[in-house]
UniProtKB/TrEMBL annotation:
Entries under Gene3D superfamilies matching the protein: P-loop containing nucleotide triphosphate hydrolases
Domain ABC transporter: start-end pairs: 4-240
Pfam family for this entry, one: ABC_tran
Taxonomic classification: Bacteria, Bacillati, Bacillota, Bacilli, Bacillales
Domain of life: Bacteria
The protein, known as: Iron-dicitrate ABC transporter ATP-binding protein
Subcellular location: Cell membrane
Keyword annotations: ATP-binding, Cell membrane, Ion transport, Iron, Iron transport, Membrane, Nucleotide-binding, Transport
Length: 283
């Protein structure tokens, strides 16, 4: 089932067209990863689908209606977005940050209701942040901060969650911490997750659906096995890579070994062995 899709979507910065005639559909209740090289347009597409940017042509459809023609509060009750590297005011606690997720449900300047407080506490516990409820966000580790922001998004009670490179600048342990959390939220709550992912192997491991983008155009779309192919990676990332199954899960893993058009690393090493060099020199 599809709740969110683009229809002939065009996106431009000033007079420069970044994305043209884009048509993609986001599977409901699945994790979708947008992948591509730097400057490919993947973050721009995510922001436009999340209604942070306005398209120059075409539309983003949510339940068959243009998302940009729906009210802000109406959309905020259906989707939440975690931008890249969000920052909170100094001294703001985890509980205070997560409470902002209830804004779409408040009327005027109304205070939090008992229901709001219950949902805030649930979001904090669901992300494993219970022991940090009263801790200032700026005193948390990178992984803890990301979990706090995800808790705020959860407090919106939306079916769709957007994340723009949620593991950027995190070490390997914190990357896995965040990705495991997103996987858990998807499995337990059937939440649709759409994220821009830098690491191809993370995308393949955690996403059900992948969209490979080059210069604002879809080059490959489907399951990780359908997208993680040597041809797609050569076209999108300009690399030569071997694709091997993960020994634990069987999902495809990318092992890059050269830039497209350059000799493979093993050939370069063979050509630089001492005996080859001596032979070439006529020794």
């Amino acid at each position: 089932m599809i709740r969110l899709a683009t229809s002939n979507l065009d996106i431009a910065y000033d007079d420069r067209l970044i994305v043209q005639n884009l048509n993609i559909a986001i599977p409901q209740g699945k994790i979708t990863a947008l992948v591509g090289s730097n400057g490919s347009g993947k973050s721009t597409i995510l922001k436009t689908m999340a209604r942070l940017m306005h398209p120059s042509g075409g539309s983003v459809l949510l339940d068959g209606r243009s998302i940009h023609k729906q009210s802000t509060k109406e959309v905020a009750k259906q989707l939440a977005i975690l931008p890249q590297n969000p920052t909170a005011p100094d001294g703001l606690t985890v509980a205070e940050l997560v409470s902002y997720g209830r804004f779409p449900y408040q009327k005027g300047f109304g205070s939090l209701t008992k229901e709001d407080r219950g949902i805030i506490q649930w979001a904090i516990e669901a992300t494993g942040m219970g022991e940090f409820t009263d801790r200032p966000v700026d005193q948390l580790s990178g992984g803890q901060r990301q979990r706090a922001w995800i808790a705020m998004a959860l407090a919106q009670e939306t079916d769709i969650l957007f994340l723009d490179e949620p593991t950027t600048f995190l070490d390997m342990a914190h990357q896995l911490e965040v990705l495991h959390l997103l996987q858990k939220l998807n499995e337990m709550n059937n939440r649709t997750v759409v994220m821009v992912v830098h690491d191809l192997n993370h995308a393949s491991r955690y996403a059900h659906h992948m969209v490979a983008i080059k210069k604002g155009t879809v080059v490959g779309e489907g399951t990780p096995a359908e997208v993680m192919t040597p041809d797609v990676l050569r076209e999108v990332f300009n690399i030569e890579a071997d694709i091997v199954p993960d020994p634990r899960t069987g999902v495809p893993l990318c092992l890059p070994y050269a830039l497209a058009g350059e000799p493979a690393a093993d050939k370069v090493m063979a050509d630089t062995k001492p005996e080859r060099i001596l032979t070439a020199a006529g020794a």
